[in-house]
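Please review this one.

:::
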Amino acid sequence: MIRFLQAAGAAAISEETRMGLWTLFVKGGWLMWPLLVLGGVTIFIFVERFLAIRRASVPCMIGFWKSCMGAASGGF
């Protein structure tokens, strides 16, 4: 019975000390804002580079199909 009460007390304490993401961000101070901006820039650069590399690898197939379609319709 004592263990059950101790576990219940520990659960109550852990619920009180739980912090949300925004609370942690605010408690981090002014240094968190540049980190947030740099994180956003990092995600933007990653997505932009991913799409650029993906587009660069596809044109061979697109060019091939355009030339095939142009040849079939007499478009050369």
Q: What stands out?
A: Helices lie at 2-17, 21-27, 32-57, 59-73.
